[in-house]
């Protein structure tokens, strides 16, 4: 079994490798282990991932890689693993069924399983199948002990002791039935919301545009719903969104915008829009691409009760001086290692299987 120190070191070296890839530039460094073998190959994999999924723009992929490079250092990984107390020295085989909505969306589960000392059986989404296998090869180079502990499959899952599965609310029902006899974490669809109270500045709304538009709004941490006080003037909101006007130049985004706008107009729904984003009054949490739903509230106390009641549907709540657990404007897509999806402590689960 690889020691926890060696596991941490391996992922920290992966973080160093990923530090060469940021939205601002892709620059080959001299001091990265095995760079002569992996750098050019990973540049190619980024290109292939873009070609395979047009939502995976170069900027979106590099944004993800840059975030992971910041998280994967010895200090963060040591703090992250302090809670690991494996009761059984016999590692288990943990299956992960990954979503494919944003680049490397299943990496946190992948990291959690391996850094806990278990082996991993990965079933990837066809939408995101190029980046992780390549990074796995890098991990196996910097830590040979990982060889044989990581397996990718496109077949029916077999020979596993526990499972972490992420999908839609519909597929989650299938997962719950199919994996009912195994220790499991089953994740359903969730969305994120922003609460507008009137305390917000122009800068807050500009930062909110990152929460709305990063990954084209496809992430569970993407804001898809606004709660606004009665009589709220949306001018400040639209002004904050303006910096993302060039999103309409992405063909796939523009097609979704045109289609959803046509549907709304044919249905005679009331809309506000600015040429690249629509907002519609709706009680639902999950809004279509290029659309944000909004709902008015009468008082903050009642809204807090509602959000608590609906907590199983909500990933993040963006706000300013509203809740203790709120996320600051512009920060939904910059989670820490301990910001567990759905609030479920993956390491604690893995420590007890």
- Whole-number mean pLDDT: 96
At CATH level 2, the architecture of the largest domain is: 3-Layer(aba) Sandwich
The SS-based structural class is alpha/beta
Instruction: Kindly provide the name of the CATH class of the largest domain.
Output: Alpha Beta
Q: Which term fits the overall shape?
A: globular
User: What is the gyration radius calculated from CA atoms?
Assistant: 21 Å
Q: Proportion of β residues?
A: 5-15%
Low-pLDDT stretches are none
Helical segment tally? Answer: 12
Order of helices and strands: HHHHEHEHEEHEEHEHHEEEHEH
Order of strands side by side in the largest beta sheet?
Answer: 8-9-10-7-6-11
Largest beta sheet, briefly?
Answer: 6 strands, mixed
Q: For the record, what is the CATH homologous superfamily label of the largest domain?
A: Aldehyde Dehydrogenase, Chain A, domain 1
